[in-house]
């Protein structure tokens, strides 16, 4: 098994480097059950990507931190920056396409846009 269990305790360390895909799921969720083998299969073929799973029943605080209201929800990080978030199960081809897009991101541009967004958020909170 190439997926990792993500918790509030190991979250920050897990997402700080490289490419990380996070699958928010629950055992009772039928779409989650259908997406699980797709996520697992991709984890076996992309050794350069960390595949993490969050059980939303067990890790409610982490799910709330992300604002997860529908599952499955997939979140992608690259170099500590969240670059993608979407609810709904993806077919294998769409997941593979997403992984390719995340790998091909111009991280200089992403870091710049992320820094600007954080500055605007801080200004909003202060003003």
UniProtKB/TrEMBL annotation:
Entries under Gene3D superfamilies matching the protein: Glutaredoxin
Q: Which domain of life is it from?
A: Bacteria
Q: Kindly give the Pfam families that the UniProt entry links to this protein.
A: Thioredoxin
GO CC field: cytosol
Keywords for the protein's UniProt record, in alphabetical order: Disulfide bond, Electron transport, Redox-active center, Transport
Q: Where is the Thioredoxin domain?
A: 1-104
What GO MF terms are annotated? protein-disulfide reductase activity
Q: Which SUPFAM superfamilies match?
A: Thioredoxin-like
Q: Does the keyword Chloroplast apply?
A: no
Q: Which family does it belong to?
A: Belongs to the thioredoxin family.
Name of this protein: Thioredoxin
Give the source species.
Brachybacterium vulturis
Gene (UniProt): trxA
């Amino acid at each position: 098994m190439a997926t990792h269990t993500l918790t509030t305790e190991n979250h920050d360390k897990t997402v700080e480097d490289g490419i990380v895909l996070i699958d928010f799921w629950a055992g009772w969720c039928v779409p989650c059950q259908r997406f699980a083998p797709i996520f697992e299969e991709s984890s076996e073929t992309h050794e350069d990507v960390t595949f993490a799973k969050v059980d939303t029943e067990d890790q409610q605080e982490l799910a709330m931190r992300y604002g997860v209201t529908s599952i499955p929800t997939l979140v992608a990080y690259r170099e500590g920056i969240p670059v993608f978030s979407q609810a709904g199960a993806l077919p294998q081809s769409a997941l593979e396409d997403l992984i390719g897009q995340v790998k091909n991101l111009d991280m200089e541009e992403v870091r710049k846009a992320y820094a600007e967004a954080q500055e605007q958020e801080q200004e909003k909170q202060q003003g």
